[in-house]
Specification:
The chain is mainly α and 376 residues long. The chain has helices at 22-36, 38-53, 60-85, 93-108, 124-147, 153-172, 192-196, 204-222, 224-234, 236-241, 246-272, 283-293, 305-324, 329-366, and strands spanning 2-6, 111-113, 118-120, 198-199, 202-203, 370-374. The chain has a single domain (38-353), classed as ABC transporter involved in vitamin B12 uptake, BtuC (Orthogonal Bundle), CATH 1.10.3470. Mean pLDDT is 84; it is low at 4-27.
Length: 376
């Protein structure tokens, strides 16, 4: 009984078949690690650069202020993450921010009902619920357009961007609602705590961001809905054949995005103690940028809350850092756009490396020597 060997010829230099060199493989691994952690590395580099350029950048009060600004974008980006994981986009979140603030302004300054000749001053908790409901309604309409009427997400949410902004302007007649502190005699005080309050010395907005991040991470990782979101974004047809309620998932992710946008509108209006219909203009771009920088794929199915938070910190610290060192507003816009383009390019490079590694592994497995018994 003898054995014959077929397949690739054994290497004489100690390397496996198809292995062009252990050093090259290690270099690819190192490059993959760098690309995987690119958002965190970018954040560290930004902190170092701005700390060297400004003595006040790393002070405790400045870090708190910048993190509070990050919270606005992070909450928006968390909602956007759900939509992008599904493979969609939501361009209406900025307008929803403004609309929710206007709704709060109307209710806090008195809702006049002409038919009955009365003015209603609801308590703050009612104001908050109404504003959140309006934001969620905008998301529901977005989801309905995408699911029931098969409108492309870009077009549907672009249209709602104008509808929500127009509604805010019509309700307010283009004016700003100032002095949203309320009146103790009317029982509608306390609105300022949402955006201007502090708990254990930390701004309320930061605590809200932490709560939203923890809840979103839990939902995406530990619930059937989270798995449905990923599977729908990865392959919608396969998910549907597997029994995933694709239409319901689409509807809910847009509602989540609208809810997050309304929360951001309430926080900012509360901090400013005023509500303007122009609030939130271009916020949707910051939210999308945070998601992309954080490593999520615009095609869907890939991304996580941790990456989104890091992306939001990159955008926030970059914007505030440029202001602190006195960079022109025009340059700030250009630099932010360049960062977004670079993030997408790096993501594409990471995916190409992964595909090449997978192809190399597959080729290596097919070329492994095999031993077959034979009789002499």
């Amino acid at each position: 009984m003898t054995a014959t060997t077929t397949g690739a010829r054994p290497s004489t230099n100690g390397r496996g078949p198809g292995d062009k060199g252990g050093t090259a493989k290690r270099e690819i691994d190192y490059l993959g690690i760098l690309l995987e952690g690119r958002a965190f590395i970018a954040l560290i580099v930004l902190i170092i650069i701005f700390a060297l350029l400004s003595d006040s950048f790393l002070t405790f009060n400045n870090l708190l202020t910048m993190t509070k600004h990050v919270a606005y974008n992070a909450i928006l980006a968390i909602g956007m993450l759900f939509v992008i994981l599904k493979g969609g986009i939501d361009l209406s979140v900025g307008s929803t921010v403004g609309l929710s603030g206007v709704i709060a302004g109307v209710l806090l300054q008195g809702w006049q009902i002409d038919a009955f000749g009365v003015v209603i001053y609801p308590p703050v908790w009612v104001v908050v619920l109404c504003s959140l409901a309006v934001g969620t309604l905008v998301g529901y309409v977005n989801g309905l357009l995408v699911t029931k009427f098969s409108v492309a997400p870009f077009i549907a949410t672009l249209g709602m961007l104008y509808v929500a902004r127009g509604a805010a302007l019509l309700i307010s007649n283009g004016s700003t609602y100032p002095r949203l502190g309320g009146d103790p005699e009317l029982g509608n005080t306390g609105f300022g705590i949402i955006g201007g309050g502090r708990l254990f010395g930390i701004p309320t907005a930061i605590w809200i961001m932490v709560v939203f991040a923890l809840v979103a991470a839990f939902v995406l990782k530990n619930t059937p809905f989270g798995r449905w979101v990923y599977s729908t974004g990865g392959n919608e047809r396969a998910a549907e054949l597997s029994g995933v309620p694709v239409r319901r998932v689409k509807l809910r992710v847009y509602m989540i995005s609208g809810f997050c946008a309304a929360t951001t509108g309430l926080i900012i209006s509360s901090e400013l103690t005023s509500a303007a219909p122009q609030l939130g203009e271009s916020f949707e771009l910051n939210a999308i940028a945070a998601v992309v920088i954080g490593g999520a794929a615009l095609t869907g199915g890939r991304g996580n809350v941790r990456g989104v938070l890091i992306g939001a910190f990159v955008i926030g610290f970059l914007s505030d850092g440029l202001v602190i060192v006195g960079v022109s507003t025009f340059w700030q816009i250009a630099i932010k756009g360049a960062v977004i383009i670079l993030a997408v390019m790096l993501d594409q490079a990471q995916q190409r490396i992964k595909r090449s590694k997978n192809a190399a592994l597959a080729a290596s497995s097919h070329s492994e020597p095999t031993t077959t018994p034979s009789t002499s």
